[in-house]
Amino acid sequence: MFTKSTYLVRERVAMLKLTDTFDILDAETGQQVAVAQEKPGLFMKLLRLVINKRVLPTEVHIAPTPDAPPVITIRRGFTLFRSKVRVQDADGQEIGFFRQKLLTIGGAFNVFDTFGQQVAQIKGDWKGWNFKFLDAAGNEIGTVTKQWAGLAKEMFTSADNYVINVAPGQDPKAMNLLIAAGIAIDTIYKEA
After folding, report:
1. The dihedral of CA 179, 182, 186, 190: what is its sign?
2. How do residues 67-114 score in pLDDT, each as one tens digit?
3. Global pTM value
4. Strand bridging mode 84-88 / 58-63
5. DSSP class of residue 115?
6. What is the Cα–Cα distance from 150 to 1, expressed in whole angstroms?
7. Which whole-number Å values give the CA distances from 54 to 6, 28, 45, 174, 191, in the listed order?
8. Sign of CA dihedral 56, 117, 169, 64
9. What is the CATH number of domain 6-190?
10. Cα(90)–Cα(82) distance, integer angstroms
11. What's the farthest any 2 CA atoms get from each other in the chain?
12. Quick one: which of 31, 39, 85, 157 has the most CB atoms within 10 Å?
């Protein structure tokens, strides 16, 4: 599904929302490629009214359309200090996971494959919204960059727009893992 190297991710704006939905667009054509929808259970939605959602479990489904079965699923359990986020393919097989670093300026987490080998690192800048994907050797293999959404949207909503750019030539499993990491930055780590 993710064959291009650059995608625009646009968070949908809604009143009193308890879940997030993102449109994933081809950056060149503007056509929708996929939808990422946060789908926690009913009990977790209700808990979000009284507890910060960063500590509660959540699940994000990435699919070609809102009603289609997920191609990628991102899952995070309860967390206090360091999040561990699992990524699964369409068959429910784990393709990797992310582990948040404890003390960082701007945010960072490591990306691991199914065997627990670190394959990449995501590092944020001091402002906390421009991220670099670095391979195991420290070479840049992609970026996530926040895009200005306009004064009203920036001041009155938590909705964000950003661009995920992955270096060409990544194998499909690595591409899916990096796209999931780009989505996880917002849904798992940035939303309050």
Report:
1. positive
2. 999 999 999 888 877 788 999 999 999 999 998 887 766 678 889 988
3. 0.86
4. unpaired
5. T
6. 30
7. 28, 33, 12, 26, 7
8. negative
9. 3.20.90
10. 26
11. 45
12. 85
